[in-house]
Automatic annotation (TrEMBL):
Organism encoding this protein: Salix dunnii
Coiled coil feature spans: none
Low complexity compositional bias, start-end: 1-13
Residue ranges of every copy of the F-box/LRR-repeat protein 15/At3g58940/PEG3-like LRR domain listed in the record: 280-376
Residues of the signal peptide: none
Superkingdom per UniProt: Eukaryota
GO biological process: SCF-dependent proteasomal ubiquitin-dependent protein catabolic process
InterPro entries tied to this protein: COI1_F-box, F-box-like_dom_sf, Leu-rich_rpt_Cys-con_subtyp, LRR_dom_sf, LRR_FXL15/At3g58940/PEG3-like
Pfam family for this entry, one: LRR_At5g56370
Region feature (Disordered): 1-23
COI1 F-box domain segment(s): 38-76
Transmembrane segment boundaries: none
CC per GO annotation: SCF ubiquitin ligase complex
Name the UniProt record assigns to this protein: F-box domain-containing protein
Length: 521
């Protein structure tokens, strides 16, 4: 609903220039009815629209008929409320937006979604579509997916969540979309019976990234994972069932796999050992997998010597610790990013990491009572390339902060959270010692640490350092949260201030505007 393209246009009088009596304009003839924006070529106007956010762009498109036309012809990304009523508006929407390459269709749980007929109409009018995201489109069936895939063969990225079509619908997509590179499946309802298997089809040679989230019978994707030899990224998050056998078959023949994310799975050291056969892996996330131990991590370290990013959430069950990390320090000298959450590590493994991983740039230590002043002092002395450091819920004091002031010459951001032994005086002294350093600090007692990523499940690559304002920041003994009403509200409540889904993530902010925002109509 609300998807029909508006035909309302505002008068252009606000852009008309009227002559004003002055000595300068006495000799100049100005047409009071001329629109001086007519001199801007359509291509330049389209570039200007791309720099606007979604709200401003929609407002600008209503200024006049020309701007309305240029906006529609230059819009590449579109997000629609995919309720059933949209079917009557599809012709007018895509008559206006005839160049859409990235489409998102979302429907809330309480509403009836669009059906196969509407999806077919969209596919006929968007033959150049390259990316499609379906969320909550429960009325779309395997037949609808088949018809869509036949018309949109240039699709390179597909993502669906909370839909009702099963394995056959995915098979139709893989059969016809020979350029498909990225596939994300979340909460697909009809893959529970296990009778149908997902096979790669014509997309076997093009598929490079597969992400499976919250599936009851994710093992039906085994043929897809095993037969797609070009996969570079694999993420399996909160999927029920035994995954060791799948990983064993996957690891035996994949030479291109470089990024693996395993979160809350029934996977053991057998699965990690199988993954370690993919020697080109440079990024590995092991998040809350209780059957993974030091033995599996040692196997990964010995075989995957190109490892650059390692994220481990041990869930505080002490099955991964010094032994595994010392193997990483010896075998993976190119390690640049290390995130340890709920992992019992001591001075021995931290000293080995600091001494051997000389290229380490980003380090996060969260929820480990064994991390103290000695460990931070060792890091400060030996990790000369360290740029970002996050310490949360560790037993450090002002001594560790003082060590940071004299070490880590390239340090630019420090985050200290829930470390009761650190005082604001020490943090202020650190800032005076290193004037360009950005610090985020609070001393609230931790209520728990969770390394699972977003609601979609996975951690992004890194640990974020929230920065308030444009310069150096020190928040005293109160919560270090965003300033403003939200920060004040959370500070007064004091209830959820310390419950962060991602306690730390190295975050690269992006300032993309315009079409990178959701262009909801």
């Amino acid at each position: 609903m609300g998807q029909s393209s508006s035909t309302t246009s505002y008068p252009t009088s606000q852009f008309l220039i009227s002559p004003e009596p002055s000595d300068f304009t006495d000799g100049i003839k100005i047409d009071p009815l001329r629109d001086y924006t007519d001199g801007i070529p359509d291509e330049c106007l389209a570039c200007i629209f791309q720099l606007l956010n979604a709200t401003d762009r929609k407002s600008s498109s209503l200024v006049c008929k020309r701007w309305f036309r240029v906006d529609g012809q230059s819009r590449r990304r579109l997000s629609l409320n995919a309720q059933s009523e949209i079917i009557s508006h599809v012709p007018s929407i895509f008559a206006r937006f005839d160049s859409v390459a990235k489409l998102s269709l979302r429907c809330d749980r309480k509403s009836l979604s669009l059906n196969d007929d509407a999806l077919l109409m969209i596919s006929i009018r968007c033959e150049s579509l390259t990316r499609l995201k379906l969320r909550g489109c429960r009325e779309v069936t395997e037949v609808g997916m088949d018809n869509f895939a036949k018309n949109c063969k240039n699709l390179t990225k597909f993502s669906c969540g909370s839909c009702n079509f099963g394995a056959m619908g995915i098979n139709m997509l893989l059969k016809h979309c020979i350029k498909l590179e990225e596939l994300t499946i979340k909460r697909l309802r009809n893959v529970n019976n296990g009778d149908d298997l997902v096979v790669p089809g014509a997309a076997a040679l093009s598929l490079k990234s597969i992400c499976l989230k919250e599936l009851v019978n994710g093992q039906c994707f085994e043929p897809l994972l095993v037969e797609c030899k070009m996969i570079k990224t694999l993420k399996v998050i909160r999927c029920v069932g035994d995954w060791d056998s799948v990983l064993v078959k996957l690891g035996s023949g994949n030479r291109f796999l470089s990024e693996v994310h395993l979160e809350r799975l029934q996977v053991s050291d057998i699965g990690l050992g199988a993954i370690s056969k993919c020697v080109n892996i440079d990024s590995l996330h092991i998040v809350k997998n209780p059957e993974c131990t030091n033995l599996g991590l040692v196997s990964v370290a010995e075989n995957c010597r190109k490892l650059r990013k390692l994220h481990i959430d041990g869930w505080k069950i002490n099955r991964i610790g010094d032994e595994g990390l010392m193997a990483v320090s010896k075998q993976c000298p190119d390690l640049q990013e290390l995130v340890l959450i709920g992992v019992h590590v001591t001075h021995f493994s931290m000293a080995a990491i600091a001494a051997n991983c000389r290229r380490l740039e980003r380090l996060a230590l969260c929820g480990s009572g064994a991390i103290g002043d000695a460990e931070i002092t060792c890091i400060a002395a030996k990790c000369v390339e360290l740029r970002k450091l996050c310490i949360k819920g560790c037993a450090i004091s002002d001594t560790a902060i003082e060590a940071l002031a004299w070490g880590c010459p390239n340090l630019v951001k420090v985050k200290v959270k829930k470390c009761k032994g650190v005082s604001s005086e020490a943090v202020n002294w650190l800032l005076r010692r290193k004037g360009s350093l950005i610090v985020s600090f609070d001393a609230i007692e931790s209520e728990g640490l969770d390394a699972s990523g977003s609601d979609a499940g996975g951690q992004e690559s890194g640990v974020g350092f929230p920065v308030t304002g444009g310069g150096n920041v020190v928040v005293g003994d109160g919560p270090s949260v965003s300033s403003g009403r939200l920060g004040l509200f959370r500070a007064r409540l004091g209830l959820f201030a310390s419950r962060n889904l991602v306690p730390c993530a190295f975050h690269r902010s992006s300032s993309n505007h315009g079409d990178n925002s959701k262009n909801n109509l």
